[in-house]
Structure formats: structure tokens, C-alpha cells
Protein 1
Amino acid sequence: MPTIRALQLLADREAALVEREAPAPPGPDEVQLRVRAVGLNHIDVWGFRGMAFAKRQYPLTVGAEAAAEVIATGPGVTGLTVGDRVVPYSALTCGVCKSCRQGRDNLCEAVAGVRGFHVDGFAQDIVNHPARLVVKVPAGVDLRDAVCVPVAYATVEHMLFDNARLEPGEWVLVHAGGSGIGSIAIRIAKSIGCTVITTVGSADKAAKASALGADHVINYREDRFEGVVRKLTGKKGVDVVFEHTGADTWNGSLLSMKRGGRLVTCGATSGPSGSINLMQLFQQQYRIIGSFGAPLSALHRALERIAGGVRPVIDTVYGLAEFRAGLERLAQRDVFGKIIVEL
Ligand SMILES: [Zn+2]
């Protein structure tokens, strides 16, 4: 009986590298993938700690974000062949509801779960996946860059363009410029000619954020970022705030926006609650947009953007057995860019 390696959660906070039976050949409309790398994200940290409200069963193979090669195709699969390099979409969407048919995959009304969080994920040598939920990686794009796409890069793409409608020449405030998504947001915004202000928590990260192209870097441990933003923008404020830090920055983020500004958020790593002055909300005509995941179209656009040279920032590459060390590094925010685990 052929076996494969899989990194599984056996209980909350208990992960182990196990040998398990290799998957059966791919079924109708499925492809079989040889996973080459998985990317780590905060969803993995939450998953590792365990969330009471998440419906799932242990053991659970981790890994929500992956890059892989097609090694077999099931009956009925067209447009994909053995040897294709791909990234799989993390959520098992239904493909037939109104949202799916409209290309709004991340609003699927009958999603079966996110792989690596609710159901078995990609941190295993071989995995089967629906063919309609994989996206080909363009020639010239390294799989180490491609693996950052399904969760991180595509989320940023969706936030900045589908949701915040960022345009060339605008001012954007990117929180936590050293994070996986923050560093990608800086690179994308600069690549289209925006002026970027970013916040970081150390002098070391400030230097790295400047090197990435950020026009203004604020160490939030030394300065109140909203005061600096107002000064830099001649008291007007920025056009777009890229939020994902939550409680610690929420009020300052609102104060950093110009009239008619757009705040887009996909996370709350510092805490889930914030307040808002409703007078400020309507008088300033703010638009506050929640964003979670990305549609498949954003994965395509992200890969094209990388092919064009706007690459993600890689912090560290680990081996599969070091997955836990990578998670700890991410949880402690001791990173600049993305953490990748190669199989
Ligand atoms: Zn659906």
C-alpha cells in the first residue's frame, strides 16, 4: 500500500507528521496534485490553536495555500494535463449557486469548507482537488512565488481593486508593512503609481519597508500613525486604508482617511472589536468594506501580476517537519513577508 506524508492536527495545538494511505486515483472532474509547497497564513495560526465555533474533526491535514503539479487527471477533465503547474483554490465552493455563477466564489452560498481549516488541506505529498478549482501558473513564475497567491496575494488583489477600487496616483495607508499581505500590498500599490504610507513595529522592518518602495514608513511604537498621516497628506488624509490589524489601529485608521475615503479590511489580528463615530461615518462619506478571501478571477490576475514582476516578499522557506516553527514565527509577527513550507 503506497503511503504519503501528511502534516496533521491531532488535537488543538498538537501537530504531527504522519504516514497515510495515498489518495485513490482522481474521480470525475478531479485532478491529482503533487504538492510542492504550502504558504502559511494567520488562518493556519487560528486553525492550530483551535476555534470552538469551527465545525471540523481531527485528525485534520493542515495547509490552506499551496502550489502543485498535476500528476493525474480524472474522467471529464479538460484544459489541464499532467505536468501543469497550478495553484488550488482553498475553499470547496459549490460551483452552481448564484454567487459562484457570477464569479463571486468567495460568497458561495453552499461552500463545503476551507481546506486546511475545516476539511483536509494541502500539507501532504499528494491530494485530489476539483479541476474547476485550480488555476494554471504562467511560465516564468516560480512556484515559491505562486504559492503565495491563493490566500495572501489574491486577498490583497481583491481588497485593493475589486473592493477599494484603488487607482494610480492615489494615497494608500498599508498597515503592518512587514506582514505577508502588507508587503504584497506595498509592492502592488507602488507598481501602479500610488503613494504608499506604511506602519511597522521596528527600525529593522522600517528599513525593509523603505527598500520595498514605501514612500513613508511610520514606526507605530514611536509615533501615533494617524497624526503622521494627517501631516504627510496636508491634513487631508489618504484615499484608501488597507486594514487587517483591527482593534489597535481601527480608530486611527478612520482618522487617517480623507472625505470619501475607502477602508478595506480582511483581518483583526490585534483584536476583533472597534467603535465608530456614526457622525464621522456619514459626514465624511467613508466607505468601509469587509473582505475575505478572493474570487478565482483574483488568483488569475495575481499570477499575471507576478509574471509581470510584482513578486511577493518571501521571509523564510521551511521544510515540512518545520511547519510548527514557521507557525510560531508567524504568530509572533517575527516576519517580513511570507513564510513558505516546501514538501
Ligand atoms: Zn456556490
Protein 2
Amino acid sequence: MAKKDKPFLTDIKTLRERARNHIEQGAITAGYSADRDTVIKLLNEALATEIVCVLRYKRHYFMASGINAQSVAAEFLQHANEEQMHADQIAARIVQLGGEPNFSPDGLASRSHAEYVEGDSLLDMIKEDLIAERIAIDSYREMITYCGSDDPTTRRMLETILAMEEEHADDLATLLQELSGKS
Ligand SMILES: [Fe+2]
Ligand SMILES: [Fe+2]
């Protein structure tokens, strides 16, 4: 069939019939072409990563507050809250896809891509956070490529999260520079 003769959309009647036949599948329609189990599995790994990042940033926040580094502590707290927001977005999407978000503390650290490192000094904490952000950036980028045009909603969510992880990495790199400059 020549390109110009190809109908752009499945006809309305077929679309409506499909929607009625599979109503129990919620937001997942017949046109969803991604491998749903794999997407859910990847999202659960991303969820674990975000939870581990929340925990690490919280630890760093309270420890930095203790050593009187208020501006760095404030940055850690802001990141902790933003990672929590990402975790919530990801959990909601997993449910939308018909899966179950895994919040179990059992195996959390091994499901997570990024690590929980406490760090001995302020400089250590910032370095560890920057490493974790760079790991998150790479894994989100891969997940985005995987979703491609098969699951544009998940892809868009991941793109928004990726943009924020890049901001986090940039913030940390700046802090690192400022702190190294002082010593
Ligand atoms: Fe995040
Ligand atoms: Fe982040």
C-alpha cells in the first residue's frame, strides 16, 4: 500500500470495540506494544534505586546538619524529597501497567542500581551521591531507549526523571568544586 493511502489511525469502530473488550486491563490497550512484564521489572528496579537514594540522601542530610554544613545539608534534603517524588511516580505507573510496586526491604539494595554508601566526610558524601546520580542517569537513559515508541507514557515519565537526575549531578559537581576550592 502506498504511504498516502495508508490510514493513519485504526478506524474508530475497531478502537471502540477493542476498548470495550478489554476494559479489565485499565489503561493498557491492545495497541500497547511493549513487553509489559519487562517494563514492570525495570520500573521496580528504578523504584528500588530511588528508595535507596532517598535513604542515602536522608542519612547525608542529618549527618551534614550535625557537622554544621547547612547549605550542603539543604541540598541533600531537597534531593531526598525529589527522589521520593520519583519513587511515587514510578510506583503509580507500575500499578497503571497492572503490576505491583515492590517496596519490600528484603533485597532492596540488590534490586537498586545505585548503592547506599554512608561516606565519612562531607566531601565523601557528595562524591558518593554524584556516583549514584551518574549510575541513575545511565540506567534511565537505557530504559528510555528500551521503551522507545512502544510505551511513550513510561518513556516520557522517565525522561522527566532523567532531566532531574542530571540537575542533581550538576548540583553535586558544583558543590564538589566549591568545597575542593576551599581546602
Ligand atoms: Fe530520582
Ligand atoms: Fe537524583
Protein 3
Amino acid sequence: MKIKQELKEEVAGATRLFWEKGLTPGSDAGDTSLRDIETGLIYICPRPRPNVLRIPNWGVIKAEHIVVIDPDGKVVDDSGLLPTVEAPMHRAIYKARPDVNAVVHSHAIWSSAFAATGKNIPLILAEQSLHLGGEVICAAYGKVASKEIARNVVAALGKDKMAALMQNHGAVALGVNFEEAFIVSDFLEKGAQVALLGGLLGPLIVRKPSEILDESLR
Ligand SMILES: [Zn+2]
């Protein structure tokens, strides 16, 4: 199947942006991927390994580091690199969600605070309903790279949520493309921050999805 250099460039660029935005503290802590709608192939961050691939942080990643896998996880390019250990989770998300073509898996501060306590991020701002699909669910715990983490994250996302938390780990933000996935990721981080700060002022006013949009806009 045709491997597209421009999609490798796109994932490398998105991963550098991912680091610049502070969504990951270095490398091998969070990753991104993109599905080619045409071929179904997945372009994904590599697995840093001593003596094979040393990347001090995702801020310096290049297109040559991006790995291409098929939906079953088989590496189909000749980079000689392995995909990130969380590739099974990325694959499971794409399999369950045909509407999604980009995944940003972050280890960012504010959403990690919720992930560390196993708490959902409640629907407290209108934007969360519009961009995240409402309340963000914290997926049940699964070990790094396990089948459980993939299954639990897919369950927390359901059919239409665009973000989920990963207990004791991080978060995922989804989009039809990277542009959308980063918007989701930004609103996810902001929602977690406001929920934490707002909670210090008093009880949060939690809304139902049906209370957000005026009938005239539906
Ligand atoms: Zn991770």
C-alpha cells in the first residue's frame, strides 16, 4: 500500500506542536497518530529505544521517525522503527470510531490531575458540550500498552465523545483531523483547569447536555 511522505511530515509536525503546547514533558510520554482515509494506514509516533532511537523530546521529531502500521498493527514501512507502545490503543480507537482520523494522546497537567484521582471532568462550560461531547469520562485503569487500556478508553469514549481520561496515565483527544484533535485537546485541558479552580470557589454548577444549546440551533 502506498506510503505517503506528506502524511509522515504531517504527523511529525503535529508531534512537534504537541510538545510545544506542553502536552507532553518529553518523548515516550504521550503520542499522536493520523489515519489515512484513503488506505486505512496509520501514521504514528515511534517507540524511543536505547541504541536504536534516541529522541530527547518530541520537539525535535522528524518525518523519518514516523512509523506506518496497518489496522492490525503490522509495520508496513521500512523505517526499521517500532511504533509507540500505545499503538494498540490508537488502533482500537480508529476501529471503534470511523468518524475519527487523528488521535492526540497527552500527558498534560490539568487533565492528568483528574486522571490521577479517577474523576470525570463534569460539564461546566458550554464549549465542553460543543467540542468534547459533554462530560469527559475517566476510563478504568489499564497497564501501559495493555489490551485493557485500549478496551477501557474505547468504552469511555463511547460512540460520540471526543475525549477521555486514562486513569493514572493521561488523556486522549480525537478529531476528524489534527486541527480538530488539537482544538479538542485545548478545551479538554481548559475544562480540567477550570473545574479544578472553580471547585476551590464553591460547588461547581454542572449542566446536562440538553441544557447547553438553544432549540433554535439544534
Ligand atoms: Zn501515555
Protein 4
Amino acid sequence: MCDKKRLVLMSCCAPCSAGAIRQLADGAIPGVGDFIVLFYNPNIYPDFEYQKRLAEQIKYCEKLGVKYAVGDYNHDAWRECVRGLENEPERGARCSKCFAFRFAYAREFAAQHGYDAVGSVFGVSRFKDQNQVDAAARGACGEIIYMPIAWDESLRQKINHESEFYRQKYCGCEFSMRK
Ligand code: SF4
């Protein structure tokens, strides 16, 4: 009997997710079989920046022939979620809320579409704290398994080097633009 998990991989952008998607497409992640890339990033601001990151993500998924889904771009709801935390530093309380907001969506998506597990590349950037991402995910994923996967950083960098991805200069929200 096959006990491989069906994984929802949450992605924030193509440069961060390139290696992880390649590994999953190659079947190189133990315990994971079927997977889908979920682009749910209502934190990204403004709209044209969101569209650029989304277009790049779709282009990469289609190049590799992997499944993907796009969540709602409900930035107003995200703003409401982080209300009062606008001046928090990156890696602070606003980021924990932001991660939890997106993981909660992934949990619903997984439950509705028959996936067992959720993972993400939210901790890939050197500006992020993987422990913070993991804590937010564990709190938000509920009955869905959270899989904190150690992605191959050298593969990610190699693909980035060979690709002409659009590379953003800030994490995503309007508050990270000031930094
Ligand atoms: S800095 Fe990044 S992780 Fe933190 S709240 Fe803004 S978009 Fe979310």
C-alpha cells in the first residue's frame, strides 16, 4: 500500500520555489507523491507587483508541467488580519499573522481538494525565520499534516542562476517596502 502524502506546496514566488518544485517534480522528496503548487499571497502589494510574481510562478509551473492553483487576491482581508501590527519589523508579530493567514487558507484548500499535507517555501529567503514559519504553520494547519521540508538550497540557486526570473526587492506587503 502506498502511503505517500499528497502535498500542497505554498509558494510566494518563482525564485524561492524553483528548487522545491523541481525536487517534487523529480520525486526527490521522500514521503511525497502527488503535489500541487498553491499561490495564495494576498499580502503582496501593490496589485501590479502581485501580477508580476503570479505570472512568473505560472510560467515556471507550466514549464515543468506541474499542477498549480491560484487563491483569491483579498488584500483588504489580509490588511484586516494584520491591523495594529503595521509597524512591526520583518520577522516580528505581523509576519507570524501573515504566515498563519496563508496557512489557514492552505488548510482549507487541502481539505477541500483531498490533499493530506501542506508545506511551504516561506522560509527560503535569508530574510525569513524558518522556525517562525514552522510555528505559524503548526498553529494553522489543524488536521492537515504540516511538512517542514529541508529544500535543496544549492539546486534552488543553480536554477535561479540559469533562469531569468523576475526578482522582487522586498518581501511582499507595503510595510516591507519601507525597509
Ligand atoms: S514582511 Fe513579508 S511575511 Fe512579513 S507581513 Fe509583510 S509580506 Fe508577510
